[in-house]
Design a protein that fits this description.
Elements lengths: L16 E8 L5 E6 L7 E6 L5 E6 L6 E6 L6 E6 L4 E7 L8 E3 L2 H28 L4 H28 L4 H9 L14 H14 L16 H13 L4 H15 L3 H16 L7 H11 L10 H15 L11 E3 L5 E3 L7 E7 L4 H18 L4 E8 L5 H10 L6 E5 L1 H9 L5 H4 L7 E5 L5 E4 L3 H14 L1
Parallel strand pairs: 1-7, 11-12, 12-13
Antiparallel strand pairs: 1-4, 2-3, 2-5, 5-6, 7-8, 9-10, 11-14, 14-15
Length: about 475
C-alpha cells in the first residue's frame, strides 16, 4: 500500500496543544495520543504517567481537529475524545468506569460528545433488543408491533441528532453528524415502481449525498465514517466510467486543496484505490491522478520512495490505456525474421506475453489455442505471442510451440539481450509498455490495434469478443 510509504507530517499554526490526562489505575507507564485517519490509527504523541496517574500531551503546534484516541499503556486499547479549536483541556478516566465515558474540564465539545454517546448507547441497546425480539416474533401481529417500535426508535435517533445539530451549530460534533447523514427519500422516491421513479430516486439520493459536507474541512479526515461514506459513493452512486470517476475526484480535490490534511487524505485514498485496478478502465483514473496531482508537485508527507512507486506505475499504464492504440512490438519470429505486431492484419488480435518456463503459461496457452480454433479464428482474430526470456530458453520456446501445435500463431522472441538494449538506450521495454506483471498477460486489440480489453483469462476473452461482435 502506498500509505505505508507516507509519513504523517502535519503543519499547523503555532498556538500549540496541551491535554492533561488522569488515567487510573495506571502509574509510571506511557499512554498515547493518536487519531483516526480512514482505516489507520497514527500515533502522534506519547506521555509518561506519574505516580498519581497524571500525564500531559503537549506540543508547540496546534493539531488538526477530529476524533482522537487516548491509548492505554502497551497500546492495549483506547477511548475517544474530540479535539477542535480549544486544544487546552483536561481528561479524567478510569478503566473501571470508562464504559460510561470520561470526565472533561474546559472542553464543551467533549462534554457534548459524552452526552451524545450516552444517549446513543441507551437508544442503540433498545434498538438491538427490539431487533432480537423481531427475529423471535411469534406471529404477524408481534412482528408488526416490533417493526413499528423500531421505526419509532429510528425516528427518535434522527430527531435527536437533528436537534443536537440545530442547537450546537458550528460545533465539531454537529459537523460530524451532518457528514454522517443519509439522504432521506419520500413518496414515490422511497418506493419506486417505475423506471422513471427509480431514476428519479437515484438522482435525488445522489444529489443529497454530500449536503452540508465541506471537502475543505480536514477534521473529517480524522474519522472512521468519512472513508466509508466515500467508498459507498464511488461503489454505488458514481457511474463506473473513467470520465465520471475523474470528474468526482477533481471536484472533491478542488475544494480540498485549501486544506493540507484533507488533500493528503483524499490523495492517499485515491492513489491506493486505483494503484492496482479492479476494472480495466481504471487505468485512466490512475494516470489522471499522476498527471494532475503528482507529476509536477511535491508534498511534505510523500517520501521519495512513495513518489517513485506512483510514477513508475503511471508510466507503466500510460502506454496501454483502454481504447488507445497499443504499442508496436517488433521482434524476431521463429525463423529469425523481424516481425511487427502492426504487420498482422486482422479484425481482432490477441496479444499474449508468456515465459516458456512458466507452468501456468503451459496450461493457459493450449487453452487459448482451443478457443482460437473453435470460435476465434472464424471471428477474424489472429494470435500474436511474445515469449519473454526469463527462465526459459529459445530451445524451450520452439519445443513448446511444436509440441502443442501452435503453428498458426505469430510467435516472436523477446530475449534478455533485446530487453537490456532497450533499457540501455532509454527505450521502454515491452513489458513496461504492456504493464506485464505476471505471465501470461493477455490483451485484446481491435482492427486498428486499439486496446479493447486487457489482463484477461481465456473465458473473459471469449466473453468480450462475443460482446464486441454483437455490438458491431
Amino acid at each position: 500500500m502506498i500509505s505505508l510509504l507516507l509519513i504523517s507530517a502535519v503543519a499547523f499554526s503555532q498556538e500549540g496543544y496541551e491535554i492533561k490526562v488522569t488515567f487510573k489505575p495506571f502509574k509510571n507507564q506511557y499512554i498515547y495520543l493518536g487519531h483516526y485517519f480512514g482505516k489507520t490509527y497514527p500515533i502522534i504523541d506519547s506521555a509518561l504517567l506519574n505516580d498519581k496517574g497524571e500525564a500531559v500531551f503537549k506540543g508547540t503546534k496546534k493539531i488538526n481537529g477530529g476524533i482522537y484516541l487516548i491509548g492505554y499503556p502497551n497500546k492495549a486499547g483506547f477511548f475517544e475524545i474530540l479535539v477542535d479549536k480549544n486544544q487546552k483541556f483536561a481528561v479524567k478516566a478510569d478503566t473501571g468506569t470508562i464504559a460510561n465515558g470520561a470526565d472533561f474540564e474546559n472542553s464543551p465539545d467533549n462534554t457534548l460528545f459524552h452526552q451524545y454517546q450516552q444517549q446513543m448507547g441507551s437508544t442503540g441497546k433498545r434498538i438491538s433488543d427490539l431487533q432480537q425480539q423481531l427475529k423471535n416474533a411469534a406471529g404477524k401481529t408481534d412482528s408488526a408491533r416490533l417493526i413499528a417500535e423500531l421505526t419509532k426508535a429510528d425516528k427518535e435517533v434522527r430527531d435527536f441528532r437533528e436537534d443536537l445539530i440545530k442547537k450546537n451549530s458550528g460545533s465539531l460534533l454537529a459537523v460530524l453528524l451532518v457528514a454522517m447523514r443519509e439522504p432521506e427519500l419520500t413518496g414515490s422516491l422511497k418506493n419506486p415502481k417505475t423506471k422513471e421513479d427509480s431514476l428519479a430516486a437515484y438522482n435525488n439520493y445522489k444529489g443529497q449525498y454530500w449536503d452540508g459536507v465541506n471537502f475543505w474541512d480536514g477534521r473529517l479526515a480524522y474519522t472512521t465514517f468519512f472513508e466509508e461514506k466515500l467508498d459507498k459513493y464511488f461503489n454505488q452512486l458514481v457511474v463506473p466510467h473513467p470520465d465520471s470517476v475523474i470528474k468526482e475526484i477533481d471536484y472533491m480535490l478542488g475544494f480540498a486543496s485549501i486544506n493540507e490534511e484533507m488533500t493528503r487524505f483524499l490523495l492517499i485514498k485515491f492513489v491506493n484505490r486505483y494503484l492496482n485496478q479492479k476494472f480495466m478502465w481504471e487505468d485512466a483514473v490512475f494516470v489522471h491522478l499522476f498527471e494532475k496531482y503528482f507529476s509536477n508537485k511535491n508534498y511534505s508527507w510523500l517520501t521519495d520512495k512513495g513518489k517513485k512507486t506512483i510514477t513508475d506505475r503511471a508510466y507503466s499504464l500510460m502506454a496501454n490505456i483502454m481504447g488507445t492504440p497499443a504499442s508496436d512490438i517488433v521482434l524476431p519470429d521463429t525463423s529469425g525474421n523481424i516481425t511487427g505486431l502492426y504487420d498482422l492484419k486482422a479484425d481482432y488480435t490477441l496479444v499474449v506475453f508468456w515465459d516458456p518456463a512458466c507452468s501456468h503459461c503451459k496450461e493457459v496457452l493450449p487453452r487459448l489455442d482451443s478457443f482460437y480454433h473453435a470460435k476465434w479464428k472464424e471471428a477474424g482474430l489472429k494470435m500474436f505471442a511474445i515469449a519473454k526470456e526469463i527462465d526459459g530458453t529459445r530451445k524451450d520456446w520452439l519445443n513448446f510451440i511444436r509440441e502443442n501445435k501452435l503453428e498458426e500463431w505469430t510467435h516472436v522472441y523477446y530475449s534478455k539481450a533485446e530487453d537490456k538494449t532497450r533499457i540501455d538506450n532509454s527505450i521502454p521495454g515491452y513489458s513496461q509498455l504492456y504493464d506485464v506483471q505476471s505471465f501470461p498477460t493477455v490483451y485484446l486489440l481491435d482492427r486498428d490495434k486499439r486496446i479493447v480489453a486487457k489482463k484477461l483469462t481465456a473465458e473473459q476473452t471469449d466473453d468480450v469478443l462475443q460482446i464486441k461482435r454483437k455490438g458491431n
